[in-house]
Amino acid sequence: FGSSDSNFVLRRSAACVLDLQVIVIMARSCRSTAGQRMLQLALLSACFSCLGSRSFIAVFGGTGLTGREVVYQALQQGEEVMVLARDPSKMLTPLGSAGEAADQIISDPKLTIVKGDVTKLEDVERIIKEGLTGVVVSLGGKTADVGETMLTDGTSNIIAAMKKVGSKRIAVVSSIGVGDSEDQAPFFFKVLMYTMMSKIFKDKNAQEALFVDPSGPGHDLEWSMIRPGGLTVEKPTGVINVIDGEAGSIARADVADFCLGAILEPGFAYIKKCPCISSVGGTGWTKDRSSKARMGEKAQP
Fold it and tell me: Closest Cα partner for 67 from 148, 172, 219?
């Protein structure tokens, strides 16, 4: 283990120890044979749970403007989060959701940040482990800094690591204009796509093909290619529309909300689809906040 991995295990172990202590105290105070037997079974179950349960989500690109929203909102929802980052010091609160507390180092016991490079499989495997609920990929950066194939290479590593541990859910933040959404991009954006941004769009198209193409390595995963319109850093509006026409703008905070729905909701409507999302026009998407959306069939009626 590295230091970040050890901290994650220690936090999980501390919570498990507390649960076990409670059960032991109850067992000592229980006098009936049947009651003691039930508590013994609960103790055994808790032991197995502590050893095997490490439910968490993984975020790649977590220090970027959209990734920060994903991490922050997931933590606010009580999720355990692991982030792979080239520079962990950039893991800051987001400009939209955090309000006046924006641009501060995120400090949360449920957050583990691992320093690493998504283009190195061994680094990716440090945060894709047993117990992974889902992955959000929000990679980005200037081509001159990260390379012309970083999105494709890094996402290929993520797919390989997910298959190794049997994880299925993944949401990838792509862009309007990628794949068959070319006609949904505004005219001025199309000009950028074919000129200044041509290299990054070539990489984005190749990244999506890893999932969309029937022969792609990620095609059998439960993926959502999320294509937002013009991104802003405004506060979340709660208005997230799936559109067929030309894309309008959308807050990164709302994109993050959609991404979390894609990996946490059992019945998410856009699995194996490439929804273009905007806060203007289209069909509204309503987040399922019920217990069943979180726990599936395990939820209490």
Answer: 172
Helix, coil or strand: residue 222: strand
For 208, half-sphere exposure in the C-beta direction (CA atoms, 13 angstrom radius) is 22
Model pLDDT for residues 156-175, shown as the tens digit of each residue:
999 999 999 999 999 999 99
pTM over 0.85, yes/no:
no
Question: How far is residue 208's CA from residue 155's CA, in Å, rounded to a whole number?
Answer: 9
The alpha-helical segments, DSSP class H, found in the chain are 3-29, 33-52, 65-76, 121-124, 143-146, 150-165, 187-194, 198-212, 252-264, 291-295
Contacts for 242 with CB less than 8 Å, ≥ 6 apart: 270, 275, 276, 277, 282, 283, 284, 285
Nearest one of 208, 156, 203 to 179, comparing CA atoms: 208
Write down the pLDDT at residue 195.
85
Of 234, 239, 288, 237, nearest in space to 261 by CA: 288
State how far the Cα of 258 lies from the Cα of 286, in Å rounded to an integer: 9
> pLDDT digit string (tens) for 41-98?
555 555 444 444 569 999 999 999 999 999 999 999 999 999 999 999 999 999 999 9
Q: Which residue has the tokens 């992955």?
A: 135
Strand partners, 92: 105
Residues 203, 208, 213, 216, CA torsion sign: positive
Sorted by sequence, the CB contacts under 8 Å of residue 182 that are 6+ apart come out as 190, 193
